[in-house]
Amino acid sequence: MNSFQTWMHMYLLLIRTTVRSRMQYKFNFVIGSFLAAFIQISEFLMVAIVLARFGGIRGWSIHEVGYLVAVMTLSKTLYRTIADEVHHLEKYLVSGDFDQLLTRPLPVLLALMPQSFRIMIGEVMQGGFILCWSLAGMLKAGSIGWPTVWWTPFIILTGAIILFSIGLATATIGFWTTRISELQTFTEDAARSAAQYPLAIYPKWLASFLLYAIPVGFVNYLPSLYLVKGELGAWVLAVTTAMAVVCLAAALRFWQFGITKYQSTGS
Q1: Which intervals of the chain form a coiled coil (predicted)?
Q2: What pLDDT does residue 47 have?
Q3: How far apart are CA 242 and CA 176, in angstroms?
Q4: What is the pTM of this model?
Q5: How many whole angstroms separate alpha carbon 86 and alpha carbon 115?
Q6: Banded pLDDT at 97 (limits 50, 70, 90)
Q7: Which of 263 and 70 is assigned the larger pLDDT?
């Protein structure tokens, strides 16, 4: 067995251990998942009521906006299911527990990611419901064809990679600052929330910022211009894929550099 296979075996073993520990409280897990889904779907329904009253927003129908929300939600869910602890790196840096990860027989990132593996059933239910509802509505209206349906899982995957890359780059800054929660609120939470809706509703400077500085617009908005609105061209899919690859490569390089600057804080 080569080193990569060994690493992946240990990574999956850590995930299995975390899942088993969470499933010790199955009732809490099930109830929590349904409540999370209900609350988040209710939030979208409030927006949907407003959109239904005014017939859309900047040329985007209620189903098209729902598609943006669903793709962003499912991309975030995929990222946070696999690598949630990247978002919580601060607690390891503050407590000094990051030192323990450095001693594991795994690349540090692979040792970190499964530490608190999350099964985000509520978010999957929410995103899945809104996605199916949106696609069904657009198919019925004839505004999209089946290729949009087939391409959507790929767009969710590239979106998850981009969000992971943004999260990893933000977390890496913690090797210099230690505290990163306020920065994450800006680069991850606020940016992602803004990009759930058409960037056309924002001033040009903000839309450009969400496309090029913090590229959350590539998660859902840019691919949707082609897949949902029929604008631009198929090259959008290639550009989105390239952005995911570039963001991931850059974030991993930055992470490796950041580790060299890490200084233990102790406990």
Answers
A1: none
A2: 62
A3: 29
A4: 0.84
A5: 10
A6: confident
A7: 70
